Every structure is written in structure tokens, then in C-alpha cells.
Amino acid sequence: MDISNPLYRNQGIHVVCALFTVKDGEVKILLAKRSNNPYPDKWMLPSGAVYNNEDCETAMKREMLEKTGITNFYVEQFHVFSNPNRSPVMRMLAVGYIGIINSENLKIKKKTEKTQDVEWFKLSEVPEDLAYDHHEIFLYALKTLKVKIIRTNIVKALLPKYFTLPELQKVYEVILNKKFDRRNFRKKFLQLGLIENTGMKESNKGHKPANLYKFIQSKDYDVDIF
Amino acid sequence: MDISNPLYRNQGIHVVCALFTVKDGEVKILLAKRSNNPYPDKWMLPSGAVYNNEDCETAMKREMLEKTGITNFYVEQFHVFSNPNRSPVMRMLAVGYIGIINSENLKIKKKTEKTQDVEWFKLSEVPEDLAYDHHEIFLYALKTLKVKIIRTNIVKALLPKYFTLPELQKVYEVILNKKFDRRNFRKKFLQLGLIENTGMKESNKGHKPANLYKFIQSKDYDVDIF
DNA sequence: TATATTTGCGTATTCCATACACATTCTATT
DNA sequence: AATAGAATGTGTATGGAATACGCAAATATA
To answer: What 3-state DSSP class applies to B99?
Structure first.
């Protein structure tokens, strides 16, 4: 690469993260509200520039920590967005990540130097005028999440340590926007051998309590299951 | 992004393509032999730097045309390689693409300014000392190809216009390195409704001629089939 | 104690994956 | 011309998974 060629100048590398969780029986995504130019006061996916001494995943986790205070979440690269005009400032490539975390005991930092707020949004309430091309990135991430939750075991990253089968089913239903038969869902998931009954039960539900299950430790995320 | 921050300096964006084909009943991948530093005389995946006025896919197709003369192939992004030390020259991110083409009537350019040769390699004969981290990229691309050929319809891009069911089966067998039962493979693939019998037959094979099939035009690539 | 609600378990049926037998159609050989 | 060799195309039997749906059990609340 001839570094003196002006065609190679001013290229920036960004990382951007679509972090999903399940909260109050709904799938939600984390957005941050910008303070500065460009797109002041617009919501965006947490994102930032990559330093030249770190790889993209490291940069993304650093940005997430700096901008939202969130750490220790499951993450997977899903697509690169490289339209040369995607940023009005300069040519800025974005490496997109899907993040997944369970919302139990999760605190987020609300305000930083560059952001004035950080919030979980229902998927149906994500603003269409996100900064940059982030709405397009959000849609692509959601599409990828749908495939992943069918084909792999990432649902493990969405759930708390103990959960009931109806709760597990609800996660599938809200992400895929589709109903399943209770009895068949149970049969199918149990025979996968990914979860085990803890013997404990939920309580105070006003009906027959469901058993609490947990994922079997040894089984990894991102294992093909369907 | 504060462009004066030295942490953001000297970042290059590369694209790299693992182009697969089926030739002589074998899966092959296209490699180019380098002329210049770094890695003189080493084989590499076709790759090159992205101009700041084009997106990555455009850059990749331009590089493929310049370095190999190949155009009009199916392509899909699969992973970004961002280890800061992956190039000895400077920090250079690589956006990886899988390319797929059928080798019928395919000519390749053998020599360019930067490459002294371009060749199809059997997967078992790809040198382990490819330039940069290209061997790692090759392995990742192959793994992705295996998933894609099971889950989607990309096999369409590997085959010529007319093909027999045994030929189709052979493609699956060489890519997945696994044998299938003729009769069950036929039954399964036909019921997918992706291909149709042309009524024509192959000839001069020394045995009962197989019917020639073609893909139904309207069905796209990258459709989930299994 | 009765009721509403939801969980957990069971069964019947249909569809798909797999295993394997046999007939067909071509080329090559004698 | 007859036959052998080789691979294709068709069919069938079986086991397991997906789907549809009936019913009993357990809890909070009235």
C-alpha cells in the first residue's frame, strides 16, 4: 500500500455494538444519546474509534465500558458497514458487533463526556432517525440475532442463571415474534440436553410454580442447536 | 474522533477474498504469488487496500479484477481480521470475503505488477506459510463455506448452468468431506424445489446417462434451505 | 373451600431422515 | 450381436422428530 496515495488518506475505523437484553419480558437494545456534532441530541448505537494498537473486539469492549459502564457480555462480530458516505465527517468504516447480556443486576452509566443519556429501548420504539447509518445497522443486527437464536445456543447469554421453561419460551417468542406450543417447545428444548432442572421452583405466581432450570456449564455458547 | 490523536494514525483498510470453485471434481481456492515486500515469493489470498471513495465490496471486486482478471462472481462478507500486528508494515485491518464461482470457461490473468502468478489450489495443497495471516483467513473462510453450503443455496454459484444430480452431490461431498447416499440425497434435494429437470441428458459416460438439471431462475442465492 | 390460572405430562398423527433392494440405460468388450 | 460393467433412477420399510391437542397437578386469591 502506497501510503502517499491520497486515495488512502483519512480512513477511520469504528466499532459499533448492538447490545440486546431481555427486560420485563421484552427484548431491548441499548442506545446512547449524543451530545456533540455530528448528530447532536440524536440516539445512536454505542460506538467509537479503534486505536491503532488494539483489535476491534478490544476497542468495542473499551468503548462499551467508557460509554455505558457495561462489561462482561457475550459478543460476536456480524457485519462491516463501509459506505464511504456513512459519516458526514470523514470516511469511516464500522465493524458491527452483536452483544448479548442478561439484565439481572445490571447497572448502566447514564452520562459521559460524549453522551448525555443511555437507555434500553424496546425494539418497536427504536427511533428511525438514529445517528449515522445506525438504524440500518440496528435492523441488520436484529436480523442476525433472529438467525442466531434459532441456530445457536446464544439464548444462554440472555437469561439469568436460573430460569423457567416458560421464561425461556417467552424469549424465543419475543425475538422471533412468533408463538410456540408450550408442550412441544418444552419437549424439543429438553431433548437438546443443554439445560437441567435444578429442583427449585418459582413462587408467588398465583398458579402452579414452574421448575427452575439452568444451562449445563460445560456447553458453550454459539453451538448449533437447531 | 479526534484526528490529531496519534492513536488514530496510520490505519489501513484491506479487503481479502477467498475465492472458491469446483474444478476436476475438487474444491479449489485461488491464490496469488507475491512479487514485492513484505513476503516476497509467498502465496497469498487476493487482497488489496480500499480507496477512501469506495465501499469494501467494490474495492474487493476491483482488486480481484486487477490481480486475477476474474469478475462476476458471487460474494459475501464473512469476517474482519483486526489483529494490530497482522501486517509487519503497518496497522492494517482486513475485511474478509468469500467468493464463489463456477470454473466453466474461466480464464485467469497470471501476472500483474505485484503478483508473479495466480493459481487454483486444492484445499489440501494450500501452503501453510501464506503471506500475512492469510492461512488463518483461509481456514475461517473454509469453515464458513461449509456452513453456507449446508444452510443456504450458494451451491448454485459453484455449478455451471446445467448439471447432473451426481455432480451436485459430489460438490457437497468434497466441500463437507463426507459421503451421502445417492438415493436419499436425490430425494432430499429434489423436494427442496430449487432445481428442475431440463429433459436433457449427459452422454458418453460409459454408463446410464444422468439427467441435466438447472436451478430455477427465480430462487435466489443465500436462501436458507436446510 | 372453590376458582382461576398456568404448569407439566402424555398420546396420536404426520412428516422427514435413513437404509437398502432392484430395475434401467448407457459404453466397452468379446 | 450378445454380454459385462458401471452408474443412474425408482421404490419401500423403518425409526425418530415435529406438530396438534387432551388432561391432571399445583398454587394464589376470593
So the answer is: strand
The alpha-carbon gap from B48 to the nearest alpha carbon of chain A, in Å, equals 8
CA distance A108 to A23: 14
Q: Name chain B contacts of A84, Cβ cutoff 8 Å.
A: 52-55
Amino acid present at A195: I
**In whole angstroms, what is the distance from residue B32 CA to residue B93 CA?**
20
Q: What's the CA–C1' distance between A24 and D17, in Å?
A: 33
Q: Please name the helix (run of DSSP H) or strand (run of DSSP E) that holds residue B74, with its range, or none.
A: strand B74-81
Taking the CA of residue A91 and the nearest CA in chain B, the distance in Å comes to 6
What is the interface size between A and B, counted as CB pairs within 8 Å? 92
Integer angstrom CA distances of residue A16 from A81, A138, B33, B111: 10, 10, 35, 39
B10-19 tens-digit pLDDT: 688 999 999 9
Separation of alpha carbons B160 and B106, rounded Å: 11
- pLDDT value, residue A104: 85
pTM: predicted TM-score of the whole model, two decimal places? 0.93
At residue B175, φ and ψ (nearest 5 deg) are -70, -40
